[in-house]
Amino acid sequence: MTFHIITLFPEMFDSYLKESILGRAIEDKKIKIKFYNPRDFTKDRNRRIDRKPYGGGPGMVIEALPVIKAIEKTKGKKKAKIIFLSPSGKQFDNNYAKKTEKNYSDIIIICGRYEGVDARVKKAFKMEDVSVGDYVLTGGELPAMVIIDCVSRQIEGVLGDFNSLEESRVASSEVYTRPEVFEYRNKKYKVPKVLLSGDHKKIEKWKKIHK
């Protein structure tokens, strides 16, 4: 799986992608992350790509052509899914992640900034508006990280043990580890007895109740 990220701020991804599971997945070549900065595709000598919106209004809009050229270089002849991050887009969830991982080996994610990206980008290529939540962020970089993380987890070998996928097993919002009992401010905190019982049916039932 290769993620192609179109963003003005590729450095924002550095620390997140170098750590933990995603860092190992990149090192093991389970996933690849490539960045394309629209500023590299403009003829403006100052590499400026933000302009005032037609029709008036606050803020600035990212020009269409540099983004289109970035997509063009990214896509080539590959069968790629293009995701246009938008607060008003289709809700991203685990099912969306599974279908994407199953059907595509290349995902292009367009990260907006300022007041957004010129809408003509969506007329030049077939793409899907996607939102990671019912809220507005200052840019598409954080949502792109969410999508990379969630889709990557669906790829066999990324988690090490594929059974680690919470959505494919009975998982609880409450988890415990050693010690069995500890004391804090004169109060003892214990692990629920059922988890120490060895009775797998009872444990599964407990997990369903405490999802």
Quick overview:
This protein is of the alpha/beta class. Helices cover 29% and strands 20% of the residues. The strands form three sheets. It has a five-stranded parallel beta sheet with strand order 2-1-6-5-7, with helices on both faces. The chain has a two-stranded antiparallel sheet with strand order 3-4.
Structure write-up:
There is one protein chain. This protein is α/β, with parallel strands linked by helices. Helices cover 29% and strands 20% of the residues. The protein contains seven helices and nine strands, in the order E-H-H-E-E-E-H-E-H-E-H-E-H-E-E-H. The protein has helices spanning 14-18, 20-27, 64-75, 94-103, 121-124, 141-152, 200-209; strands at residues 2-6, 32-36, 50-51, 61-62, 80-91, 106-110, 128-131, 181-184, 187-190. The strands form three sheets. The protein has a five-stranded parallel sheet, sandwiched between helices. A hairpin with a 2-residue loop joins strand 8 (181-184) and strand 9. It is elongated. The mean pLDDT is 91.
